[in-house]
Amino acid sequence: MSIIRQDIATRDWTIFALERAKRPQDYKQEKKIRNNQAYVEDCPFCKGNEHMTPEQRLVIGDPDWKVRVVPNKFAALTTSKQTSYSVQRHKTGLYLSMDGIGEHEVLIESPVHNQHLATMDQAEMEKVIQAYQQRFSVLSKNENYQLIIIFRNHGSRAGTSLEHPHSQLIATPFVPGYIRNRLQEAQRYFDDMGCCVYCDMIEYEIQANKRIIEQTQDFIAFAPYASVSPYNIMVLPKRHQSCFIQAGDDLQRGLATILKKCLIKLHDALMDPDYNYVIDSAPVDKAGEKHYHWHVEILPRLTTRAGFELGSGMYINTILPEECARILSNTQKS
Question: Which domains are seen in the chain, by residue range?
Answer without folding.
Answer: 3-79+94-329 (3.30.428.10)
